[in-house]
Every structure is written in C-alpha cells, then in structure tokens.
Description:
Layout lengths: L4 E3 L2 E4 L4 E6 L8 E8 L6 E6 L6 E3 L7 E6 L4 E6 L8 E11 L5 H7 E3 L3 E6 L1
Parallel strand pairs: 2-11
Antiparallel strand pairs: 1-3, 3-8, 4-5, 4-9, 5-6, 7-8, 9-10, 9-11
Amino acid sequence: xxxxxxxxxxxxQAGGSLxxxxxxxxxxxxxxxxxxxxxxxxxxREFVACISWDGVYTLYGDSVKGRFTISRDNVKNIMYLxxxxxxxxxxxxxxCNQDRVPFEVGSAHGLQENGDFGxxxxxxxxx
Length: 127
C-alpha cells in the first residue's frame, strides 16, 4: 500500500500564504476523491477540505472557508491546498487523504472512514 505524500509545509507569518501539495502514487489518482485534514497539539483531527475525483465538487470546513482553496491536477497526479490569510490558529500538522472507493464526491466522514492518510506536514503560523 502506497500512502499519499504531503509537501509544502513550513513557517509563515500571520496573514501570509502557503501552498501544500499531495501526491498519491498507489492508485489511479484521477479516480479517487481526496482531502485535507489537520491536527493541532492536544486537539482532535479536523476536516479542512475535500475534492471529488473529477475536481468538480469541493467542500470546506467552516474555519477555512474563504481563505483556503483545494484543487487537483489529474494529469500531474497532484492535489493542492492554497492557504491564504493564515492565522496562528491554523498551526497544525496537515494530512492528505485519498479515498479508497473510486468515483466518490468526497466528504469529511467518508474520507475519515474510507481513506488513507499520509504522514503529514507541519504548518506553523506565527503572529
């Protein structure tokens, strides 16, 4: 089993931007919904965003709506999370998730239950 691999995390000042990337080589990338979750120290894992297998449908957690944008390139087999106007409360380990069920629209619950998580990438926002 090949898990997704995240990249692009780092240290950024509040108000700044970062773009996370996720590649997933284990399955035919274009067939599977994907998403992002995050976990801050001492907190439960939180849904951030997800995108359908074809990129048509997206869904965002309330805390990131209007600031984060999820997208995917089914030719390059990469998913992205563009994060703008970052806040200190966005500090967390960000995890990529790839669904195991093909041709799904994607949902927080579905990915949590039926997806594979990567190892995560740290995002730290300082004020």
